[in-house]
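Page header: ASSEMBLY MODEL / two components / 594 residues total.
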Amino acid sequence: MTSAGLRGNLLLGLAALAVASMPLWASAYHMQLASTAMIAAMFALSLQLLVGATGLVSLAHAAFFGLGAYAVHLLKQAMGETPVVFLSLPVSVLAAGLAAALIGPFALRTRGFYFLMTTLAFGQMLFFLFHDTPLGGGTDGVFIQRPSLIWAVPRAQRPTVFLLLNLAVLALTYAGLWALMRTLFGHALLGIRANEHRMRAMGHNVQRLKLLAFVIAGALAGLAGHMAALTDAFVSPELLGWHRSAEALLMILLGGIGALHGPILGAFALTFIQEIGHLVTERQKLVEGAVILAAVLLLRHGLAGIRR
Amino acid sequence: MTGFLAQMLNGIQYGLLLFLISSGLTLIFGVMGVINLAHGSLFMIGAYLAYVLTAAALPLWAALLASVLAGALFGAVLERLLFRHFRKREHLDQVLLTFALILLFEEARAALIDNQFHSVPVPALLDFSVRVVGDFAYSAYRLVVLAVCLLVAALMVLFIERTKIGSAIRAAAESPEMVDLLGLNAAWIHTLVFAAGTALAMLAGALAAPLQSVYPGMGDGFLILSFVVVVIGGLGSVGGAFWAALLVGLIDTLGKAYLPQLAGIAVCGMMALVLLWRPSGLFART
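Prediction written out in full:
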């Protein structure tokens, strides 16, 4: 997996500036759309640490995203009052990371197809926990109270504030992963993807490295889930379902599996395509299915690989 | 007590339906090395086929026959057109291809039929209860489903264990290169396995249609449970899938009857235990 070079990062920075300037020229609706794309980008970026870096294709990832979102709701239930964001955010990250640390040791005993199947089953187990029990507020989801920010945000300012918040968290997530991939740990993960046996023969504790990647990725998915709950003020069991994981995999494939910044491109591309599709046809799934077919049949290196 | 007996029989019958679905899944994994997430959608298609045909006043047995024939044909076409070319691709590509198929199948279903819940009536001939022991009576249709599933399972085991093609399939599941080296036609075996797997999934859907309602996304729950069955039974093992399917069917049914909120979790918890104990499946030869 390659990280964007100086020029690539400059381009990403310019794109971030363009998003940051949206309050000056874009409508509230388009700012909300950009927020949706950025949350999807955070989620897909966290999955890229498993898929692109370590070579683990997980279908449980949406469960950690959903858990991060539900943590906001459950925290409010437990406290009896609306938590501040400085409390709800770490709680979401910890809850998702903890779930990943519990599931990881079981799922990582397997590899290949078995890993796909076990992550699918464990992810759906968490989905059923929120779908079938009254724990999270029921099958259809619930409207939740947003965690309070430092100041009270009037309704009219919400799109702007959440746009900038999401941009900041996305930028931090990307920067953090970018730095992580430059450490010895990041290189070891790339080594596992390239040749697991060799890494083991060289004396690396492959199992522990994989688990650490699984937990970090899960925690970051929880962070994305927290931002989704904060932005939408709504959580539902669908957030945890494996279809969401597959959608994130699609963003990774669309953006380019070989590039760290690929998922960001993929998330924006898919949100854009879905929005266009929404204008043209009622059949959302038809659009998404056709995009996936085109991507797996034609676009082998993703959008990030087109220039190569 | 009679309630418990009924739940046990329900569990066995549910497990046998699961076996029809997961035996195809495990063979397709084992022989072709392809992960097919759309397998649950094939089950859904079978159920809708039964709904459409019985609504057109055809008898259910005709719908069952049609689901097998249409399934075999559909599976062969899918294998030749798509899955053949994805055998050597990465897991990510296979996951996304079959996810796309799920979306497209659901859209096709919405466009051709609708998004409503439907019920398929139990055939009038079988719409009565049989007294099994004492005053415990059980639905005749459910007993027939039980018998049909057992018959199909027996035929399949006979076919795989006793015929030449069956031994080629077993060889392919154990070592795909071996089949090529022995000069067997691997391409033909792949088409056969995929067609059979599709036919079995669609047959299961048609059989299940009168037992539950027919609705969008009905294959999703079966897909997850089938995956659990394949994990517990061991990849590519039809015998393992049989016992694992019975186990999962019983636990899921009894769980839903007596601990409704924990049923979904109980099955996955069991899978976690199996993974801890024997990561390559409970029934895999070690």
